[in-house]
């Protein structure tokens, strides 16, 4: 027994939808596909954003990068930086190491995609020349062996610390790598350690690295060709001060456009902004299918109104106002859209679960709220015209309708 | 009191005008039992719709309890129909997707009132009309007589002063029809104004007054 008007309204709407099951299903299908498109695109976007953020977080906090060229926070300037001929010198590094706000200062020379050989095996990895501080800076965990220390640097030892992939590709079993020899750019290096697998990185993929002291490759002249300098501040509240001091020190020798001091969060924001823009565009395209679904809702609601003209007349005769009729059909329209949204959300969630081993897509509360909100809006927008038609029917004409 | 003053109702199809009602003036006093008699097409249903505030005349004035209603807003007219008038139709006009109980209480929901215990009231009405046990059934599960009783219960739920019945026995057998008429007449004895529209002379003769229509005009 229904004693509440709104429960009766809801019940009537659901009954009406269920009365024409096939028609309702086809309408719901349109909304469902639209919601799935939008939700999955947002879920993929969120997964990628989280992945990018995690990668940046792996780099650690209190970090500054001093890179060549001018980077002003947008990704396009990254390519200008790469094209710059400017490089840092060892003296710059030593000057920065003297700053009291700096905990770690590490120079990095990088040559990507070099052939690394050991016996008959070869692998294309990245040569990274640096000092002993890189182990802490890159947060390497030793799988076997150790990283080189300052005495290796001083003695110009030709030693190498391998990333996980490099070791696996050259030696099958990374444990056997220590003590073996690898050849890079004609230089023979003795392997002294292998890092645990890291899984991805920023400018250099850590797992594909061969790291050696910069003094081991005099022919490459790394002391005059460091591509960037990694700094870690003593504490989070000293990061800004360190940034200003670094700019001060380097500005004594160089022009403003020769270098940039960047916090990873700035880079992260720049990347995320561009990504968000692209993702939004894709979601907008996905939303077109929602509009098509909405048109389906409107069509079905017009049919529903026509089928129930007499019923509308009866309701008006017993005292229903125009707004009561409007509300009745709007509720039906909204329930239809919501139904599609709920099924679309459930199916999207299943898809996300299925691809989880391969891709970290994510559906959060905000996405669910957006999907529900948009489907309600679709129900209201596309249901309003048929609902108004129903409300504006003349009672006596409606009640006589056969 | 319902007063129709010089009312006409015209339907236009292209250049052709059809007068469903022409220059009708009628007054029904409160508590009266009136029959509107006429053959098919005489305009009796049109007259009932205008008196019941379901339709507006093309010309003339309609007064409900001495207030001019022809200029009232749609919402106000809906409110009057809801609270002051109860309709009983030839085809019962119940809503098939609602149960008997839900059909009966529907006018109450539209009133947005909370002045009485609706469940108690509805069940009492169904009890008085001897269909209490049918409250959870749907209209298509009832006989014609039972459906008309439900329609009467719905018409009475808001305690209206006026009952307008348009051919209330038209779809019923004679025995059931007599039962329904008896119910309606008992309502009149309790003080409700009863207007019955019918083509059946014998039914019309039971009323205290007859309004006779022919071709949209008042004959007597």
Give a quick rundown of the structure.
The complex is a heterodimer of chains A (402) and B (220). By secondary structure, chain A is α+β, with helices and mostly antiparallel strands.
What do these coordinates show?
Chain A has 402 residues and is of the alpha+beta class. Chain A has helices at 5-19, 21-58, 76-83, 90-97, 134-137, 150-154, 164-171, 239-251, 264-307, 309-317, 322-355, 365-391, 395-400, and strands at 63-68, 102-118, 121-130, 142-145, 159-162, 181-184, 187-195, 209-213, 228-233, 259-262. Chain A has two domains: 3-54 and 270-400, no CATH class; 90-252, no CATH class. In chain A, a hairpin with a 2-residue loop joins β6 (181-184) and β7 (187-195). The longest helix of chain A has 44 residues, at 264-307. Chain A starts with a helix and ends with a helix. The relative contact order of chain A is 0.18. Chain B has 220 residues and is an alpha/beta fold. Chain B has a single domain (33-46, 73-212), classed as 3-Layer(aba) Sandwich (Rossmann fold). Chain B has seven helices and ten strands. In chain B, the strands form two sheets. A six-stranded mixed sheet of chain B has the order 6-7-8-3-9-10, sandwiched between helices. Chain B has a four-stranded antiparallel sheet with strand order 2-1-4-5, covered by helices on one side.
List the defining traits of the structure above.
heterodimer; A: 402 residues; alpha+beta; 2 domains; 6-stranded mixed barrel; 13 helices; B: 220 residues; alpha/beta; Rossmann fold; 6-stranded mixed β-sheet; 4-stranded antiparallel β-sheet; 7 helices; 10 strands
Query: What's the total helix number of chain A?
Result: 13
Strand % of chain A is: 15-25%
What is the first-to-last residue Cα distance of chain A?
Answer: 30 Å
Helix/strand/pairing category of chain A: alpha+beta
Shape of chain B: globular
Outline the low-pLDDT stretches of chain A. none
**Beta fraction of chain B:** 25-35%
Gross geometry of chain A: elongated
**Sheet having the most strands of chain B:** 6 strands, mixed
Q: Give the helices and strands of chain B as they follow along the chain.
A: EEEHEEHEHHHEHEHEE
Relevant CATH superfamily of chain B: P-loop containing nucleotide triphosphate hydrolases
Helix content of chain A: 40-55%
Oligomerization state: heterodimer
- CATH fold group of chain B: Rossmann fold
